[in-house]
Amino acid sequence: MSFRDHFSGAARNYAAYRPRYPGALFEFLAEEAAGRDLAWDCGTGNGQAAVALAGVFAEVVATDASQEQVRHAEPHPAVVYRVGRESESGLAPRSADVVTAAQAAHWFDHAAFHREVDRVLRPGGILAVWCYEMMKIDAAVDAIVDRLYRERVGRYWPAERKVIETGYRDLPFPYRDLPAPSFAMESSIDRDGLLGYLGTWSAVLRCRAAEGIDPVEEIVTEVESIWPDRTEFRRAVWPLFLRLGRAPDGGVAR
Q1: pTM of this prediction?
Q2: pLDDT mean by block of 10 residues, the chain; 254 residues
Q3: 239 closest CA partner among 101, 129, 131, 107
Q4: How far apart are CA 167 and CA 122, in angstroms?
Q5: Strand 59-64 to strand 234-246: parallel, antiparallel, or no bridges (unpaired)?
Q6: Are the beta carbons of 203 and 156 closer than 8 angstroms?
Q7: CA distance 33 to 18
Q8: Which CATH number fits domain 8-246: 1.20.120.290, 1.10.8.420, 3.30.450.30, 3.40.50.150?
């Protein structure tokens, strides 16, 4: 399965505009993990999950197949960034307490990823993959964003996006699902932040490349009409969908 890079062209904006995961999520993962020595964050993107993991694990190895994403990732003394596919952690066998994939697992070669998870997890280690769906701000803004998502750039979404729309329920997963609390990302966002975030969507990037037109620019006037003060901040919420599993012997349950 060849690597299809949907995000390198906007790596800098991805780091600037993507929302932050809640701290409670990482505290929960640390409590569930076999230990707190080493975490592997696969498909790390801009490194936001990796940096958060570094707050509760002694060492984090963060990998991404996109060299541009790694180049723009947030530095942290406890995080080691590497360019590598989902099968290329570079870790020793049975060395990781937790493996995570934040808004990334739907892009993976799942069989290859699960083999690598099987190899690197310690006994009792956990695998946690999560995604987030459409943001919610208010009815007027949400209607514009939804129309952009479904109508304007809908045909540009990669097929892998479908499993996000079902909350990862249809994502291949190697373990028995464990119960987990509900989490959500929350952010205070201004108008420019909203438009910048929309510009990081993979479908928007593909639309720009195919048509030579920025679909986000097409909605600027409409957004300004309902959000006239660019310095005004509004609350945005992204629901998270988490799948958590543990193999008793540190390997994939078959």
Answers
A1: 0.86
A2: 50 67 97 95 94 98 93 94 96 97 95 96 95 94 97 92 92 94 94 94 94 97 97 96 83 44
A3: 131
A4: 27
A5: unpaired
A6: yes
A7: 26
A8: 3.40.50.150
